[in-house]
């Protein structure tokens, strides 16, 4: 201990560490990446002009080859494979970030030009001037904003009670061996995988049988969204209820409180922040659904605030129809589509943020 | 004090309110109404559970009712079905067959492209990334799931289509002898390959989040045992993580397949299709169409009977994706890690969004 000569943590310089031989230096990765970047930038520039995508792709390939060869030479075959896999896995992760960044960047850069007060506050659509025979197109999203909020709002009002009550049944009432519980748990899982367009067709089929062939309405779209939203709410609420400690329930029963009051006043109150977070995330999920709303509520340029009759416009559908079924002025339609897409992304971000804030602020004080 | 304890033990031991109010005065508050409330609450919550099954059955039943006229109609003679989107097919199955093929083909391309990357990401987050960063990196990937599908579709139109053009030309020129890359190469980029790439991006988060959770559940001792025997990290993963997570990886892939089958907007916006059996990846106008995109494109202009036929194809999509999801969940339930705690093992999935 006292003699520095045998201190194992500080080997004297110059003496070769037998444990460190046959290993690549620690910072080898950094150097290989830099080298690969330089080489590929040079090669790409020589071949045919610099472009960033080509350089990055080539860098990735060069890095993987170089590190494997270097490791195979200095270390051994097994370590070379290990380094290769490490490189591949890292590249896979970076690969996934590209679409994320690229998507957000595209939407923001294309949509930011449209995002002003008149876009939000005026009803879009085309108007025909009978004297000049000209069609002028206004770019606006007010009808879509109202439609989105109403349809999503109604869907939330229907789905949340059903979802929470089902979760309560699954967690609080049903025994684990109960057949209904097992079937419902399984079906909820399967339901999360129902294609969204099928939900739209279901709502359309339901309402054509009730109302007749012209069954497009905002409410019908809400019903379609419910099919998608209920399983999400059930799952997230179920997880939150399971996190409530059994002690709390037992303490409540011990005080003579009956089951329903225990659930309402103890279990739900403890889990409320988690449940709200789950609901917000569910809203963020369904607010961007396009296909079911498109089928069940169709699309329109007219302002329609009555969810029980007539087609309704929504933001995702505006983004879709503006590109796929543009009006006379194709540029104006496309602009409206990008503006709607950006507004939609902003709404999703807002709901996600609310979810995070609720989770952070109102989580039970006693926990952790 | 003693009063309340007796009440407590009696009601706790039965797990429900005691049979009769005991002597404790406070226990009487709202006892009668509480009992009724209990019944109502139990009724409401079990009713909701039943309602979910009713809804699922309703989806199937209403789709069948609505699509029967279109399936049963005589497609040769019906003038309504011989115009517009459904023109030129001998019967419903001749119409739905190529669509079903296109749906499976597009989803298959997405799986081929997406699954290896998704599993790689899951491995990176669970076993390679620095511990402190892992959570944040996982959240980044989950953000992909929060992006609305129509936004991915728009992104595919203006970014992915032109981006893939040089690659498509390359494949067509040098590998054109393969059926996949044959045909006239697309000028606009509206190919099923572009659609498949966007679909692959969309199924990344679901496959990643499920496999990641399962990788993280690998028993620590298995991993440490492998490392202690001198395995490198990759050998450790091959020896202990993959065998443990195999069924989970299969079912995650199937869930990704289910998602890809039903995805509408990306395909509807990006590819320019026709209804035929086709293997080509880099052509436009000769791609197979998918069921969902076909419905989304033609529904607004369709007549009543045509809508009925479209609903029929939707019913087929429902059946196929229900079956895929059913099998996936069944594998998880049967053979998933910690099969007894399966509901809890998947908990973090709900937080992802």
Automatic annotation (TrEMBL), chain A:
A matching Pfam family: BPD_transp_1
Query: Recorded GO terms, molecular function?
Result: phosphate transmembrane transporter activity
Chain segments annotated as transmembrane: 27-50, 56-75, 87-108, 151-171, 183-210, 216-234, 266-287, 336-362
Q: Where is the ABC transmembrane type-1 domain?
A: 145-355
Q: What does the UniProt keyword field contain?
A: Cell membrane, Membrane, Phosphate transport, Transmembrane, Transmembrane helix, Transport
A single cellular component GO annotation: plasma membrane
Intracellular or extracellular location(s): Cell membrane
Q: What is its main location?
A: membrane
Q: How does it sit in the membrane?
A: Multi-pass membrane protein
**Which biological processes are named by the entry's GO terms?**
phosphate ion transmembrane transport
Q: Which PROSITE patterns match?
A: ABC_TM1
Q: Outline what the protein does.
A: Part of the binding-protein-dependent transport system for phosphate; probably responsible for the translocation of the substrate across the membrane.
Family (UniProt): Belongs to the binding-protein-dependent transport system permease family. CysTW subfamily.
The entry's protein name is: Phosphate transport system permease protein PstA
Q: Which organism is it from?
A: Schumannella soli
Q: Which gene encodes it?
A: pstA
UniProtKB/TrEMBL annotation, chain B:
Task: Look up keyword Transmembrane and say if it applies.
Answer: yes
Q: Which Pfam families match?
A: BPD_transp_1
Q: How does it sit in the membrane?
A: Multi-pass membrane protein
Q: Which GO terms describe its biological process?
A: phosphate ion transport
- PROSITE patterns attached here? ABC_TM1
Residue ranges for the region (Disordered) are 1-34
Q: Which domain of life is it from?
A: Bacteria
| PANTHER family linked | PHOSPHATE TRANSPORT SYSTEM PERMEASE PROTEIN PST (PTHR30425), PHOSPHATE TRANSPORT SYSTEM PERMEASE PROTEIN PSTC (PTHR30425:SF1)
Protein name per the record: Phosphate transport system permease protein
Source organism per UniProt: Schumannella soli
Q: Which gene encodes it?
A: pstC
